[in-house]
Task: inverse folding
């Protein structure tokens, strides 16, 4: 199965800019389906970006984050050619991860 994560990281000087798009339903548990039944909550609980084995960005999310979330941030210390790892865990125990080279 292909990863649900698309990531781009570019380094300029000592700053690395990261953009990531994650495909996930992010169901809040407050929306009904076509039969009028509530769709159970299904959302990413923790999102982690690591560089050099150390976390550079951690987000604890809840059901208020929209479907297919987009994340953009920057950090200092990344180098071109370095590996940036992203991973998430959702409230049903599903996980995904991906690694991108910093350009």
Result:
């Amino acid at each position: 199965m292909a990863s649900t994560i698309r990531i781009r990281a570019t380094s300029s000087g000592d700053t690395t800019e990261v953009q990531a798009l994650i495909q996930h339903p992010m169901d809040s548990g407050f929306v009904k389906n076509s039969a009028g039944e509530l769709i159970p909550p299904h959302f990413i609980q923790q999102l982690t970006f690591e560089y050099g084995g150390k976390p550079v960005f951690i987000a604890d999310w809840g059901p208020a984050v929209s479907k297919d979330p987009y994340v953009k941030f920057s950090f200092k210390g990344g180098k071109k050619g370095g590996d940036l790892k992203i991973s998430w865990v959702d409230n049903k125990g599903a996980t995904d991860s991906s690694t991108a080279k910093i350009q």
Summary: The CA atoms of residues 38 and 45 lie 20 Å apart.
